[in-house]
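Changelog note: in this version the structure field was regenerated for every chain. One regenerated record is shown below for reference.
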Amino acid sequence: MRTNKKTLRNVILFSLVAISCGWIGVGVNQLLGEPSNLESLGSGIFIATPIVCMILLRLFGGDGWKDFPLKPYFKQNIRWYIFAIAVYPIVVGITLFVGKRLGWVDVSKFTIAASLPVLVAAFLPSFIKNIFEESAFRGYLTVKMKQLTKNEWLIYVVVAFVCQIWHLPYNLIFLDDAYQATFFPYSKELFVLVSFVVIAVWTIMYTEIFFLSRSLLLVVLMHSMKDALNPLISEGFTIILPDKTLLVSPLFGLIPTLIYLAIGLYLRRIRKSKECLLS
């Protein structure tokens, strides 16, 4: 790891704040006598604290704003914007097609006319939420880790680990049990374990598309496309046999997870090839 004491200090501080803020939110809800759900003050603390910490470190911690990836680079990234919009719909479509062919998925209630307005309505709140999340974890933590090390595997591990631990209070407490069961009809403990694996795989793909595009907007868009597809399951447009969830769930299934891993590693190969040509 390249020596940069200030950056290392701030990365450690950001990470500690991120992994603790959700539990602080839970504690605040308990003090106020409020339930810990997604409408609570504690949930707001969980969502907002990482980006607030990032802003404070950039303003007062010596990080500055020069490396904040605000420019969208539309002209240079046309194909990557297309990728960001299309990757989740395509992979989810492939997964559900395989599941339907094998008799594991019922899509009889799915129609474009019925589902499209619901998916579009889900996009905007997801986009706003993901500005907070991606500004912190890609626009700050990933950027700073890249300044600390050239080892992208270490970047994957650190970013995935902090993001995974940040999600723990969400997965265990804030997320409604009934809503979670529509996606993952197993125990909370298994849900957390599988989420760790899925986030680790997604981190490779998100990190690599971010490195290739240098655009925060692009990863916000990609993340929002993923979240906007959740009503396919939650609104009953597709029904997956409970014992096949670990195989064909669009969010947690083995099939889409392996596809995302292959995509992430392929993006890494593209980036490495470009770096070799420039060196």
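Spot check on this record: Strands lie at 105-106, 239-240. The CA atoms of residues 45 and 167 lie 13 Å apart.
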